[in-house]
Every structure is written in structure tokens, then in C-alpha cells.
């Protein structure tokens, strides 16, 4: 996930789906946050469009993965 990952509340399923989708697309919660790119979305409703619109985002530094391969 990255060392700057802030764990959402257990009850916030939308935030967990967003984190999973971002991670699967290669986004990582790392770095200082000092970049001009948009912040990562925190809801499942915003993730799909965000991933499509930000192919070269500063936090898209990982490989695409399947969550189920790791849990």
C-alpha cells in the first residue's frame, strides 16, 4: 500500500473499495505528497474515472496486481 496509507474506518466500505481499486491499478500511498497531481480519491464512486484520467500520476508507481493474490 505504501507507508503513507491511512487506514479507513472498518465500517467505511467505500473507502476500502477505493483503496483496493487504486492499489490494483498500480497506485501507491507513498512519497511526501509534494506534487502537483490530484489527490487520490477516497470513495469507490470516484475511483474508476480517476484511474482512467490519471495514467501518469505521481503515485502510480507500482505494478498492476490482483488483490485476491495477496489476501
Put the structure in a nutshell.
By secondary structure, this protein is mainly alpha-helical.
Find the structural class using helix and strand composition.
mainly alpha
N-to-C terminal Cα separation, in Å? 13 Å
Radius of gyration: 12 Å
Tally of individual helices? 2
Q: Largest beta sheet, briefly?
A: none
Tell me what the structure shows.
The structure is a single chain. This protein is mostly helical and 71 residues long. The protein has one domain. 31% of the residues lie in helices and 0% in strands. It is built from 2 helices and no strands. It has helices at residues 13-24, 44-53. Helix 1 (13-24) runs parallel beside helix 2 (44-53). The longest helix is centred in the N-terminal third of the chain and has 12 residues, at 13-24. The two termini are 13 Å apart. The model has no long low-confidence stretch (mean pLDDT 88).
Question: What attributes characterize this protein structure?
Answer:
71 residues
Strands, helices and their partners?
Layout: H1 13-24, H2 44-53
Helix pairs in contact: 1-2
Amino acid at each position: 500500500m505504501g507507508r503513507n496509507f491511512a487506514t479507513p474506518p472498518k465500517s467505511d466500505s467505500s473507502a476500502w473499495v477505493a483503496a483496493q481499486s487504486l492499489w490494483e491499478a498500480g497506485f501507491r500511498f507513498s512519497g511526501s505528497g509534494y506534487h502537483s497531481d490530484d489527490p487520490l480519491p477516497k470513495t469507490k464512486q470516484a475511483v474508476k474515472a480517476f484511474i482512467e484520467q490519471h495514467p501518469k500520476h505521481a503515485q502510480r508507481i507500482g505494478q498492476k496486481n490482483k488483490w485476491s493474490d495477496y489476501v
